TrEMBL record:
Coiled-coil zones: none
Gene name, Swiss-Prot/TrEMBL: Pcyt1b_0
The protein, known as: choline-phosphate cytidylyltransferase
Keywords: Lipid biosynthesis, Lipid metabolism, Nucleotidyltransferase, Phospholipid biosynthesis, Phospholipid metabolism, Transferase
InterPro entries tied to this protein: CCT, Cyt_trans-like, Pcy1-like, Rossmann-like_a/b/a_fold
Species per Swiss-Prot/TrEMBL record: Armadillidium nasatum
UniProt xrefs under PANTHER family: CHOLINE-PHOSPHATE CYTIDYLYLTRANSFERASE, CYTIDYLYLTRANSFERASE
Family: Belongs to the cytidylyltransferase family.
Pathway where it operates: Phospholipid metabolism; phosphatidylcholine biosynthesis; phosphatidylcholine from phosphocholine: step 1/2; Lipid metabolism
Signal peptide: none
Amino acid sequence: TIFRPAPFYYDEEAVREREACDYNVKISLNMARAGLAPRRVRVYADGIYDLFHQGHARQLMQAKNILPNVYLIVGVCSDALTHSKKGRTVMSEDERYEALRHCRYVDEVVPDAPWILDDAHLEKHKIDFVAHDDIPYTTGSYTDVYAHIKERGMFVTTERTEGISTSDVVSRIVKDYDLYVRRNLARGYSAKELNVSFLNEKKYRLQNTFDDLKKRGKEMIGEIEGKKSDLFSKWEEKSREFIDAFLMLFGREG
C-alpha cells in the first residue's frame, strides 16, 4: 500500500487476502508476540478518524507494529452512526475513508464500521486482535465497548499521543474563528459558503482592507527609509569628493 491506496474490504485484493487466511488456525497473543504465528496476524483498529492528524497516524503505526507480520484492517464509522453517537464530524465519511486508505500503515479499510464489535463482525473479517488505547471507551453508556474483546484475550493496547486530538484541532479553529473567516474571504470564498452574515462579511472585509493598508504603509515606510539611507550614503561620498577637490585646488596649507 506504499504505492497505491489500501483496498476496501470488498475489493478483490482484500477478498483474496481474507480467503487465503485459515481462520480455523487460532493465534494466541503469546504465539503472535513470539513470532510463531503460522500466517499473517489480522489486527483491527477502529474509530472516527475525523480531521486525520498525527495522533491517528501514530496509533495506526503502533497497531501495524504491535506484533510481527501484521495485516492491519481499519474500521471507520459512517456519518449517520457517528452523528447519532458522538456528534457532527468536520469531514464526510467518504473523506475519512480516503484519508485512511492513503495512510501507509493501513492494509485494508472497512467503511460503515459498527460501534460495537460483535462476534459476527470478528468472524466476517477474520480478526485476530483489536488494537485501541486501554482507556475504557464508554461514549453514551457506562459499559466499555471493548470489554468483551478484552475478556476474550483479543485486545492489544496502543498509546494515545498527548497534546493532539480532533477536539483540540476544532478548538483551535473556534478560538481563531475570525482570522480563518477573514483569510478565506480574502481567498475568494463567499459569505454564503462560510455561513457569515451580511454585516459580519462587511466587517471582515473592512478589517482585511485595513490590514492591507497597514502592510502597504509599512512597506512604503521601509522603502522611504531605504532611499533615505541610500541618499545619505551618496551625499557622504560626494562630500568627500568635494573636500578632496577643494584641498587639491587650494592646497592643504590654504
